[in-house]
Design brief:
Distance between the termini: 21 Å
Number of helices: 2
Order of helices and strands: EHHEEEEE
Strand order of the largest sheet: 4-1-6
Strand content: 25-35%
Number of domains: 2
Radius of gyration: 19 Å
Amino acid sequence: MEGACDRLCIQFSYSPKKLEDEAKAKQLLERSVQMYMEPAYRQPILEKMDRYLPLTNLVTVSVDDPVGYRGACHRHDSEQWLVLSPSAASPGLTKGPITEGWWSITLSVHSIVTGSCDYRLAVWTEPARGDDR
């Protein structure tokens, strides 16, 4: 970031959010249960498979400033508007000075159940607006 600013804004979105093909979703669930669950627990899970539908993609955002960790936004929303400023921050992030230097945003891919998943990440600075939301 060049120069001083009072507010860092992040817009993050990804799509699709969910796997629309229910038959494919059930197939993925069944395969996962067979691979990762102990045999004694498989059947009860498979009998209640519908409670785990729809299967969804999940990608989350973490932020580090030049000094260190500023937080993580482990939200299930596929579109997020996040703000950091000296006096306020979006839930999951820590308010504090917007210092000059290298910042990093990490996208954690928890689950991709669709054939592809596109994302958009935009980051910009602006002066504080007074309401700091």
